[in-house]
Specification:
With about 150 residues, the chain is an all-alpha fold. It has helices spanning about 1-20, 30-40, 55, 75-85, 100, 120-130, 145. The longest helix is centred in the N-terminal third of the chain and has 17 residues, at about 1-20.
């Protein structure tokens, strides 16, 4: 009984983590179906402190899991060529810096695009001033928090 309860709890918890609907939206049949699938595929933790799943410990007892296709050989080659061309590769040594950071004159400059126009920034600034949504001290206090009577509640 404990094992069945633990398995159901595990399925529910893994469902929440994976982004399934809230507990109120999950029916008893759905939980039973998920448990049955987990038992069938061995996608359940094994007993003990190994923190491994049954299908990892005993792969010959369970069907092979589907492997998702990655990048094709041509795509990888194209990415490598792009990285070589732009210097977007780690340099040798322990610096953990890219080639285009160490030798910027050897590689084309990266194009930087502004995400907001000047007018949009000015409009945001005017709104922040009206609402008091700006910092007034190093402590991180905003003007509308320090002087609530000066700014109308939004």
């Amino acid at each position: 009984m404990k094992t069945k309860f633990a398995a159901i709890t595990l399925v529910l918890a893994s469902g929440l983590i994976a982004g399934t609907p809230a507990l109120a939206d999950v029916t008893r049949e759905q939980v039973k179906a998920e448990l049955a699938q987990a038992i069938r595929t061995g996608d359940m933790p094994a007993n003990g402190e190994q923190s491994r799943k049954l299908n990892e410990l005993y792969p010959h007892l369970y069907p092979a899991q589907q492997v998702q296709a990655g990048l094709t050989r041509e795509q990888v080659k194209a990415e490598l060529a792009q990285a070589i061309r732009t210097g977007d590769m780690l340099a040798n040594g322990e610096q953990s810096r890219k080639l285009n950071e160490l030798y910027p004159n050897r590689y084309p400059a990266k194009q930087v695009q502004a995400s907001l126009t000047r007018e949009q920034v000015n409009a945001e600034l005017a709104q922040a001033i009206r609402s008091g949504d700006y910092m007034i001290s190093d402590s991180g206090q905003k003007c509308n928090e320090a002087h609530p009577s000066m700014h109308p509640a939004v």
